[in-house]
Specification:
Largest sheet: 6 strands, mixed
Distance between the termini: 60 Å
Number of helices: 8
Main location: endoplasmic reticulum
Number of strands: 6
Number of domains: 2
Radius of gyration: 28 Å
Shape: elongated
Structural class: alpha/beta
CATH architecture of the largest domain: 3-Layer(aba) Sandwich
Membrane topology: Single-pass membrane protein
GO molecular function: GTP binding; GTPase activity; metal ion binding
Keywords: Endoplasmic reticulum, GTP-binding, Magnesium, Membrane, Metal-binding, Nucleotide-binding, Receptor, Transmembrane, Transmembrane helix
Bound molecules: guanosine-5'-triphosphate, magnesium ion
Strand order of the largest sheet: 2-3-1-4-5-6
CATH class of the largest domain: Alpha Beta
InterPro entries: P-loop_NTPase, Small_GTPase_ARF/SAR, SRP_receptor_beta_su
Strand content: 5-15%
Length: 261
């Protein structure tokens, strides 16, 4: 009985296949190829769209001198607390998460990949691993101990701003003046001006020294003019924050401007 049913089904299917073959033969060849072409093109188009969607970077890189407060800020973004008692980091700290401040928001929110690269000079080359996927770079500055570190911070920032990948991809940079919870912290305007002054000096000395090996290093600013961040091809902005007390709204704004929710 069951076998009969199977035979019947087989016949039916064979019948359908024959019908389909007849139909296909009735369609002019050119039309058939055109139809197949359209289907293949559509599939290709959708694959392409997916590929591009996925390639959109969602990494925000936290950099800056050791002790500027990157790790505290990382935890503030992730957990909404500072994890008091952090020590000098020896490894990059990374995570993909929905910002703590957005946890209670309705709807699907895109997580952000945040990387905190320690300021220790041995670990700085790690930046090159993360820059290709960077949607934005946050350069954290200690606004409290700014003056003694101004030169070192400017050198580090100079290196970042002249990196080929940063210039070519026009990766936006946010200079984040941290620790403004203390009254003695310098203002972001003061810090911006000092950094510009120091970078202006560096620019003169460095181009004089390394004229020969500037091949993959981009030069900064406009020749003959005093350096200002507004001359950079990528957008460079300043903001302030306190990782310790959780005043990081300007940073969160920067993150969401460049990694869409
Ligand atoms: N007052 C004040 N202190 C802060 C703030 N943020 C960080 N600190 C202190 O600064 C010190 C360094 O902070 P970290 O977050 O460890 O610094 P880091 O940039 O990660 O340093 P490395 O890992 O060495 O590169 C710690 O003692 C923090 O408590 C802040 O907003 N205000
Ligand atoms: Mg750290």
């Amino acid at each position: 009985m069951e076998k009969d049913g199977f035979e019947q089904l087989k016949h039916q299917v064979e019948e359908w296949v024959r019908e389909a073959e007849k139909l296909v033969h009735q369609i002019p060849q050119t039309q058939l190829y055109a139809a197949i072409g359209v289907v293949l093109l559509t599939i290709f188009f959708f694959l392409l769209v997916r590929l591009f969607k996925r390639a959109k970077p969602n990494t925000i890189v936290l950099t800056g001198l050791s002790g500027s407060g990157k790790t505290v800020i990382f935890y503030q973004l992730r957990d909404g607390s500072s994890h008091q008692g952090t020590v000098t980091s020896m490894e990059p700290n990374e995570g993909t998460f929905v910002l703590h401040s957005e946890i209670n928001k309705k709807g699907k929110i895109k997580p952000v990949h945040i990387v905190d690269v320690p300021g220790h000079s041995r670990l700085r080359p790690k930046l090159d691993e993360f820059f290709p996927q960077a949607a934005g770079i946050v350069f954290v500055v200690d606004a409290l101990e700014f003056l003694p570190n101004c030169r070192a911070a400017s050198e580090y920032l100079y290196d970042i701003l002249t990196k080929a990948i940063v210039v070519r991809k026009k990766i936006p940079v946010l200079i984040l003046c941290n620790k403004v919870d203390k009254v003695t912290a310098h203002t972001k305007e003061f810090i911006r001006k000092q950094l510009e002054k120091e970078i202006d000096k560096l620019r003169a000395s460095r181009t004089a020294v390394s004229e020969a090996d500037v091949a993959n290093e981009y030069s900064l600013g406009v020749p003959g003019e005093v350096f200002a961040f507004s001359q950079c091809q990528n957008k460079v902005t300043v903001a302030d924050a306190s990782g310790l007390t959780g005043e990081i709204s300007q940073l969160e704004q920067f993150v969401r401007e460049h990694v869409k929710a």
